[in-house]
Design goal:
338 residues, elongated, mainly alpha, two-stranded antiparallel ribbon, 14 helices
Length: 338
């Protein structure tokens, strides 16, 4: 009798095949809102890690777009984290470090911002945006001399930069060189006649120099262009108050408070000019006419361009040009102090 062999059961094995998304990309440049070019990286925008049952966690690459999106939405701490991760994967990209510096600066992390800008400049010593924005960090941290060096280098690369000239004015102001600061702001305005911050800063310097009559035209123009800026309204109020126009000053202070009810300087100024009935003045002041006068002054500052450069001649922006009684017909009764 033959023996029938026993058939063993066949075990069906399930095999798991992990799926990994490839992160390809193009290094073709594209224009960003910050100017210049940055590489397009078409990687996944997910963050963090993906767990694997057979090995260590895999870090998901960060795309430039994802980090830039967070920055554009004003999520600066998140953008700082994302650009930090991006620079790890793209350490050769100066624009990545630039955006990391910009994000960290906006997030209030000055030390990290400074380090990122320095890294961008290490990769590209002529990276104009990093020169300009690192100078802002240096100015905010009390390093005006170092900031001035970077601003001057950036201006040697782009001498017609309104942004650079405005920063030059700020650096010279911080260093106490007020006449040189005035020249820089005037020159910035010859390039962009609607640069409200140069107008405001110019007026602020004149007020500090007890030249309140000269402060009024640039401040009047700044407020005309941007009436919802409380700092402009407050500075205009200060100029008007010191020039002897309490009623007009009160209106400017009130405009500042209407935009920002917590603005203590404007509230203090309003209290000063309205105490004791000082708010009534016999001679009104025409701010529209002052604004028009300032626009005409900018044309004078432009003067004859230096041959071959397109830059205004230095003599055309000397502070003496704007201190010689050009406002006498508009402010006949304007006194430098009240």
């Amino acid at each position: 009798m033959s023996r029938i062999p026993t058939r063993l059961p066949v075990l069906a094995l399930a095999v798991l095949i992990p799926f990994a998304a490839a992160c390809g990309g193009s290094d073709e440049p594209r224009t960003t809102s910050e100017g210049g070019t940055t590489p397009v990286v078409s990687a996944s925008s997910n963050t963090g890690t993906e767990a694997s049952s057979t090995g260590p966690a895999v870090v998901t690459p960060i795309s430039y777009e994802a980090a830039e999106s967070a920055f554009g939405a004003g999520r600066y701490p998140e953008a700082t984290e994302l650009f930090t991760a991006y620079t790890v994967s793209k350490p050769e990209n100066a624009w990545g470090y630039y955006m990391l510096g910009l994000s960290a600066w906006k997030a209030g992390e000055h030390e990290k911002a400074s380090g990122a800008f320095d890294k961008a400049l290490e990769l590209d010593p002529d990276h104009r945006k990093s020169l300009f924005n690192s100078s802002r960090v240096l100015l905010e941290t009390g390093q005006a001399e170092e900031a001035l060096e970077r601003i001057e280098k950036a201006l040697s690369l782009e001498p017609l930069s309104n942004e650079g000239l405005r920063l030059l004015g700020r650096a010279r102001y911080e260093l106490g060189n007020l006449d040189e600061a005035i020249k820089a702001y005037q020159r910035a305005l010859t390039i962009d006649e609607r640069d409200v911050w140069s107008m405001n800063n110019l007026g602020h310097i004149y007020i500090q120099q007890d030249r309140s009559c000269e402060a009024l035209p640039p401040l009047a123009r700044a407020v005309e262009l941007r009436s919802n800026a409380p700092v402009f309204q407050n500075n205009l109020g200060t100029g008007l108050e010191r020039a002897g126009y309490p009623a007009a000053a009160a209106r400017a202070y009130e405009a500042a408070i209407a935009v920002d009810s917590t603005y203590a300087k404007a509230s203090g100024g309003l209290a000063r000019v309205t105490s004791g009935g000082q708010e009534i003045e016999s001679t009104p002041i025409d701010l529209v006419r002052l604004s028009e006068k300032f626009q005409a002054d900018i044309e004078v500052w432009r003067g004859p361009a230096e041959v071959g450069t397109g830059m205004p001649a230095d003599s055309a922006v000397d502070s003496a040009v704007v201190s010689g009684g050009k406002l006498s017909d508009t402010l006949e009764q304007c006194s430098p102090e009240i």
